[in-house]
Specification:
This is Phosphohexomutase. The chain contains seven helices and 20 strands. A seven-stranded antiparallel beta sheet has the order 1-2-5-12-7-10-14, with no helix packed on it. It is globular.
């Protein structure tokens, strides 16, 4: 089988969201079916939302089916040893037409105990931001559960939270427990642990089309919140035709590649690799075969693919587990 492996592309899993819009189509070329499409899950093994391959002879098979049969070939030696047959990451594009809820995610320990799930450490790469767009990330100063609850009750929570203006190219790294919200007018690429556990604490008092408020998770969030001030914005280099490290954590490494011409890769098969095209177009050349990718597309390279070339003019996120 190993000689037949090739770069895998999946059908996007599109998600309607109360805060979503149409930029996933207008900017990223996704075939959306509603005016409130908030998310495109690019690679997922979240229960009920497992990615299906759309290219090559494996077309129609799910990622989980492949992992069941060929876990080490897909994941890599090191990742397989650590995670077994589970795919440990979830890749998304998001379009926030309105503010997302103020929310946070539990750590591994709490998520395992409560939900039998991974925690949700995540990062954002800002692909597009309207004038004046901002994100909410953590507390302005250290806080406490008492102060936080008092502000939540008085509907003044945002007065103690840090608002950060954003522009294209900004990178934010959110450890579990960081209270946050993506603001209106932003398109991001999101890389996170495989988890769909979110504790929503404030939703701007909005109602859905049926006049219902979305569920909040006030009490569950209390134990999960990090009340300390956090540093979330990451600086990174933008050297052409180089893997510039943007985020490096135990759960994933993300590099920023400004591709202009050609880059040759030789891997060690310890980890799979994912490329997300965030600007421009590139070709991935492997085994004398060429696949083309444009802005808004994502590709998974099984760990057994160790020699390949990227060619083109593009900005690319390169993700793996180190």
């Amino acid at each position: 089988m190993s000689t037949n492996w090739y770069p895998l592309v999946f059908e996007p899993i599109l998600k309607d969201r109360i805060w979503g819009g149409i930029k996933l189509q207008s900017i990223l070329g996704k075939k959306i079916s509603s005016q409130t499409t908030g998310e495109s899950w690019e690679i997922s093994t979240v229960s009920g939302d497992v990615s299906v391959i759309k290219n090559g002879f494996l077309e129609g098979k799910t990622l989980n089916e492949l992992l069941e049969k060929y876990p080490e070939e897909i994941l890599g030696k090191k990742v397989y040893e650590q995670f077994g047959k589970q795919f440990p990451l979830l890749f998304k594009f998001l379009d926030a037409r309105e503010d997302l809820s103020i929310q946070l995610h539990p750590n591994d320990e709490l998520a395992k105990k409560r939900h039998n799930s991974f925690g949700k450490t995540e990062m954002w790469y800002v692909m597009q931001a309207d004038e004046g767009a901002r994100v909410i990330l953590g507390f302005k100063e250290g806080s406490s559960s008492d102060e936080y609850l008092q502000h939540l009750e008085n509907k003044t929570l945002t007065t103690i939270l840090e608002e950060i203006p954003v522009k294209k190219g900004d990178v934010f790294f959110l450890e579990t427990g960081t209270i946050h919200a993506i603001g209106a007018g932003i398109v991001i690429a999101e890389i996170q642990q495989t988890s769909d556990i979110t504790y929503r604490v404030y939703d701007w008092d909005r109602l859905d089309a049926n006049g219902n408020a979305r569920e909040l998770h006030i009490s569950m969030a209390l134990e999960a919140i990090n009340y300390n001030k956090v540093e979330v914005k990451k600086k990174y280099n933008k050297t052409t035709n180089t893997s510039n490290e943007a985020v490096n954590c135990p759960y994933f490494t993300t590099n920023f590649i400004p591709l202009d011409g050609e880059m040759t890769f030789k891997e060690n098969s310890n980890s799979f690799k994912v490329f997300m095209c965030i600007e421009g177009e590139f070709d991935l050349v492997y085994n004398k075969e060429k696949q083309s990718f444009k802005k808004g597309e994502t590709v998974l390279l099984p760990a057994v693919i160790t020699d390949y070339i990227l060619v083109g003019k593009a900005s690319v996120l390169e993700i793996y587990i180190s």
